[in-house]
Protein: PIG-L family deacetylase
Organism: Actinomadura vinacea
Amino acid sequence: MTSVLDDSEIQRVLAVMAHPDDVDFSSAGSIAGWTGQGVEVVYLMVTDGDAGGFDDGITRAEMAELRRDEQRAAAKSVGVTDVRFLGYSDGRVEATLDLRRDIARVIRQVRPDRVVTSSPERNYQRIYPSHPDHRAVGSATLDAVYPDARNPYAFPELLAEEGLAAWTAREVWLSGGPSADHYVDVTEFLPRKLAALKAHASQTAHLGDGLEEMVRAWLGSNAAAAGLPEGRLAEAFLVVNTT
């Protein structure tokens, strides 16, 4: 089993996700725990989520603005105030060199010990986390962590033109993939996770009370896989040591 850094060793976490709400579905409970311990957490959303929602009465530009606002509100529910957006097109993300550079830039700016992102692997047991944007962002983020952000000769313009020195993130946590080797008990943070998810009203309001039922079901399944007592809830990750 991969060794996992103790939270006491972590000063900063960077969560890199494709769309507003991805981080809240995957990791909001864990993040609430980290911020409660004084860990600084920064969100980087690759798209504005302009292809999401169910309302034909607003433009895609208006949807993007709404989803940015929803993500900022959701972040506050779990103690995060620094939320950044790269503005890539929702539904069209590819793991390009440009995306790798843009993520490496933020890694060098934030200088995180831990990076949280989506799995680049397709999950055949549960297809929803395997949106192509999720997989592309997971792949680009792993490449940005290793080798891009730590190599001073990768994207040299980041140092020469922006003064951003190389930085080594010590581990990456992958969510939504076909396998997990680390579970975080988030039972006490369920209300804050639900508050974050409900902040994404354009995506979750139609679920009503079914949202909590759905969240409890999959977090309970994670907890069972982790061997936690009945009634506990957990978020699941595959942890990659990158040092």
Q: What stands out?
A: DSSP finds eight helices and seven strands in the chain. Strands lie at 12-17, 40-47, 82-88, 114-118, 171-175, 182-185, 234-241.
